[in-house]
Amino acid sequence: MKQKVLWFSRHAMTEEQKNSLGDVEINQINKTIHSAKELKAEIEANDIIAIVAPIELQREFLELAGDKPVITAVNDRVLVPQQDGTEDKLEFHFRKWERLIKIEIEKEDYIPS
Questions:
Q1: What total of structural domains would you count in the chain?
Q2: Half-sphere exposure of 6 (CA within 13 A, CB side)
Q3: What is the C-alpha to C-alpha distance for residues 95 and 71, in angstroms, rounded to an integer?
Q4: Do 3 and 23 form a contact (C-beta atoms < 8 A)?
Q5: Tens digit of each residue's pLDDT (9 = 90 or more) over 79-107
Q6: For residue 54, how far is the Cα from the chain centroid?
Q7: Residue 78, in any domain of the structure
Q8: Would residue 106 count as lying in a domain?
């Protein structure tokens, strides 16, 4: 049985990313949210939560997912020289998935001296 993957990202998951997850069904959500709680039903309906999000949202996804894996893609940034001499093009090359285990955020006011 295929596992269901919630893919929270503006970009479509690459074939390489998808293939590395095995036999899965990708359910992409491409919208702006202010809290992961907005996607509570979608998180509950999927087996794996794959996200591209700021650290605060990552923490919320991790909290809402419970025991479900919350994963993020690790990519290499590669500058590709252009034959016509124009500015190099930035490409992202998928390396692996990482599972988020714990996120602690500690902040304090910054007051310049």
A1: 1
A2: 24
A3: 13
A4: yes
A5: 888 888 888 888 889 999 999 999 998 88
A6: 9
A7: yes
A8: no
Whole-angstrom CA distances from 110 to 30, 107, 113 are: 34, 9, 9
The answer to the question of residue 88 being in a domain is: yes
CATH number, domain containing residue 73: 3.40.50
Contact indicator for 51, 70 with CB cutoff of 8 Å: yes
User: Structure pTM?
Assistant: 0.85
In a domain, 112, yes or no: no
The amino acid at residue 89 is K
Length of the chain: 113
> Taking Cα atoms as reference points, which of 56, 61, 72 lies closest to residue 104?
56
Q: Which residue has the tokens 């992409």?
A: 28
Domain with 23 in it:
3-99
pLDDT single digits (tens) 8-53: 999 999 999 999 999 999 999 999 999 999 999 999 999 999 999 9
